[in-house]
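User: Can you write out an input/output pair for a complex, sequences first and structure second?

Assistant: Here is one pair. Inputs:
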Amino acid sequence: MWATALAFLNAGDRDDAHLVASVLVVEADGRVLLARHRRYGQWGPVGGHVESGDASLSDAAARELTEESALVARVHPAPIDVHLSTYRCRTTTEPVLHLDVLFAAIVAGPTPDLVANEELADLEWFDPNVLPFPLTPDAAELITFAAATLQR
Ligand SMILES: [Zn+2]
């Protein structure tokens, strides 16, 4: 299935479809990292477009995390969700199909200070029982699933 999806998208080489890698990061106390994106105004996973130098989708997720938050986390290799949606991103003037592959990751040890980059309006750790509003679609279920995946 992945090979088919990637072949369809030609690993980001097409201009009519974009491949996105995102990550839900959980820290030692169970809090989850969420970003509020300037463009969309909703709280959700950190992520961005896969680039040709990324060795894998999970590597792309780890790179995006470090670029957007200065955090380094251990990304679980199995994706937890795949989502297709059409929207206009910063590289296009028209809405484009995006295949967004979501991963779970864990930060071990003390949680470092967060440093959000300019694409994000906010970046914070949240108790999974006290999540912010508005959330991206399905975020609450995906956070529960990410935590369960990391405990396996
Ligand atoms: Zn895009």
